[in-house]
Sequence to fold (526 residues):
Amino acid sequence: MADQDRRDFIRSAVGAAATVGVAAGLTGNAVAAAAGAPAITDTVTRPGHGPARSAGTGGQFSPIRAEVTILDCNIEGKLPVDLNGGFYATGPDPQYPMRQGNIIFDGEGHARLFRIRNGRVDYRTRWVKSERFVANDKARAQLFPMYRNPYMDDPRAKGLSRSTANTHVINHKGLILALKEDSPPVAMDLNTLETVDPVYTFDGQLPRDRAFTAHPKVCSKTGNIVAFGYEADGFGSASVAFFEIDKAGKKVWETKIPVPYCGLLHDFAVTENHIALFVVPLAFDPEQIKRGGIHWSWDKTLKSHLGWFRRYGDGKDVKWVQGPAQSGTHTMGAFEDAGRIHFDTEMTAGNPFPFMPNKDGSPPDLPGSVSTIYRISANLSGKTKGYEVKQLYALQAPLPKQDDRYNTMPYRYGYAACPDPTVAPGEVAGSCYARMDVQNGTYELWNAGPKVSLAEPVFAPKSVNSREGEGYLLGVAYNLDQNLRSDLVILDAERVKDGPIARVKLPVQASPQVHGWWVREDQYPA
Ligand code: V55
Ligand code: FE
Fold:
């Protein structure tokens, strides 16, 4: 997320989280819900319709709550003739006001598509019609009032998938899968974004209660989806299932491994032969859950653990090395080389999400939540004390990306939104897109200025066979001085510092975005 968003949502969400002694109000509501009384009695302004545009949001996390279809969008500049495909994204768009103590990560997913073809751009957004969304819609109330806390659910939520599908999207077999790490995917039509299966189990190959990460990788060699689901032996369990699904949708491998503790396992790393995971101290907190709070709290007494094991094995070869309490949430790239594994990720010294409580009750640690880009390395033999950590870039970039054709291989370029690092402290840093050249340590920036909030970009190769980095960088710019009216900006990925070569001008605010995904033209069914 861009700096503006991080500040906005930290400021407002921290306000809410500060009350996460929550107990009083929340337990009251839980009791009311259990007794069959209406759980929601708020008369507060609905999200997206008040002057404050709702707490916990800002920039790319501002709710819109309207499904939009605009064919033949206005285009400024020159849309490249070799840019054909679809830019998909999802993000939290709270259906009902967030309960005090809840966090924006619990907003219902709203998916969007910029379909770019033959010089035209069609824009379309649809709520993800998850089981949760549909049940809420029917009840006209929030039946799932607290982030990953099923004890707070309304009785009408029983048995339904809790997915908000608000985190990421990928394409698979002519579908878009909208992802939330606690649940199976929700399958949507690739062209219309209508939901076709609210609990997608890959034709029954995965159990209905098997979670599916929001950050699967696509194997650079096979095209297989490599994914995992944590809490694989039940709510809060320290067990993770890993699986691989081929392009035809067949599950070709699965195993399960125990992890040192149940921590937020948001992303992971896949190399040609190995899978690596970084277990961090945002840990499952059953006491907090019983008090009516969210799923996680930051427990700085825990160690961070890097683990790895061979793909296609049974996982019993897993090796673990430890480091101090620190976090890494999003992988930029990973590869193995000369007996070592390298895992490039953004890292924080403390709780990466200061709107999530600290277990010791200490106040939000804003400096400790700042992400910059690191390389974690270890000898595959496991015969080292810990893992090595080296900072690659001081850029504050919590959502770094790469060209997804290189998910499991040595790579050269990374991309991210970040604040301008050259601006003096205290001054408003413009929101930038950066291209990092991790092989020579340099980077290039385009600064969109202080009145813009840039969402995470995606890289679109010119064609399936383009060399790495040859293509376009696409991202949504929310104009803070135009009531968030948004543009899709398109940059030549090899000339990022020149700024956009084209802009798709929406007449409205774009829907919220966490992560986005590019589908090449050759990946659409004929
Ligand atoms: C993240 C996002 C989530 C979530 C857990 O960015 C972790 C990390 C949008 O929801 O539920
Ligand atoms: Fe993520």
Summary: The domain at 3-417+425-503+514-523 is CATH 2.130.10.10 (Methylamine Dehydrogenase; Chain H). Residues 3-17 form the longest helix (15 residues).
